[in-house]
Amino acid sequence: MTSALPLIASFDWGKFNKANALFDESELVLLNTKIIHHMPFDAVTSRLPGGMTAADWEALRGNIERIDAIDGWWQVVSGDIAPVVEDPAFVATARAALAELPWSDDIWTAWTNALKDATGRKGKALFMPLRLALTGQPHGPEMGPLLARMGRERALARLET
User: Fold this and answer.
1) In this structure, is residue 74 part of a structural domain?
2) Rg, C-alpha atoms of the chain
């Protein structure tokens, strides 16, 4: 109760507008999204798909507006998806480069640096074909943690052309 005293002391009905309050669903979605992005794993564990770890939640939570939307991104990490391969030659080169690298938490950086050196690609021309092949989506969570969570075998399988 002590922490509410400054709020109570500053409360003034005169600061409120006399007009009716307006409900804006987009503001509610934005507020919900911000809350979810800061929720700790322990607060959502019972609402997450089986097998998700705290590291998985940390990697994926920044891309959802509702907790039930985590199911789709968990499927990307741990299940079967339909990779989108628009540039088979580049994806084959990417697969070969990934297969040669030692797996680590920073595999994304090592891999994309190797591909930059090997192909001269950078920016969207480098990253988008990789994202599409690995996730089937043109947007989503940061690829570094996502690839690390996905694992070597799943990533290599999605890059097969």
Assistant:
1) yes
2) 22
Pair 76, 137: CB distance under 8 Å:
yes
Angstrom distance (rounded) from CA 90 to CA 73:
25
Question: In this predicted model, what pLDDT tens digit does every residue of 23-72 receive, in sequence order?
Answer: 889 999 999 999 999 999 999 999 999 999 999 999 999 999 999 999 99
CA torsion sign for 80, 86, 90, 92 is positive
pTM equals 0.81
Do residue 111 and residue 150 come from a single domain?
yes
The rounded distance, in Å, linking the Cα atoms of 155 and 134 is: 6
Going from the C-alpha of 110 to that of each of 107, 117, 144, the distances in angstroms are 5, 11, 10
